[in-house]
Recover the amino acids of this structure.
């Protein structure tokens, strides 16, 4: 049995798809399949998906998101230079101060490296 949060996500996803179905059917079909595809069936590699998630976490001021996706990116082969590139792109496009979030990410990266 699905929990309430999963049901809410499913309904929100269906509503999103339906809002695009008529005007943009290709996108609607792609998004509909997005959640059900296996990791190796995605358009982007998992590492690159994590880069996007890191950027979104920084912009959404979500420390737990940043930490989770940073560690996952590193465990999936991301390098320190790639993480720095993600930060640089995010800062250049954000138009707002996300210094606190970046400091948290860099501290998390340092802790991760010490434990390896």
């Amino acid at each position: 049995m699905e929990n309430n949060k999963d049901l809410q996500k499913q309904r929100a996803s269906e509503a999103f798809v339906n809002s695009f179905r008529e005007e943009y059917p290709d996108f609607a079909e792609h998004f509909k399949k997005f959640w059900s595809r296996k990791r190796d069936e995605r358009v982007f590699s998992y590492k690159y998906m994590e880069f996007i998630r890191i950027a979104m976490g920084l912009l959404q001021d979500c420390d737990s998101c940043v930490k989770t996706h940073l560690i996952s990116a590193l465990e999936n082969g991301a390098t320190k230079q790639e993480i720095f590139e993600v930060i640089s792109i995010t800062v250049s496009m954000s138009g707002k101060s996300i210094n606190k979030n970046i400091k948290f990410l860099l501290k998390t990266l340092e802790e991760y490296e010490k434990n390896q």
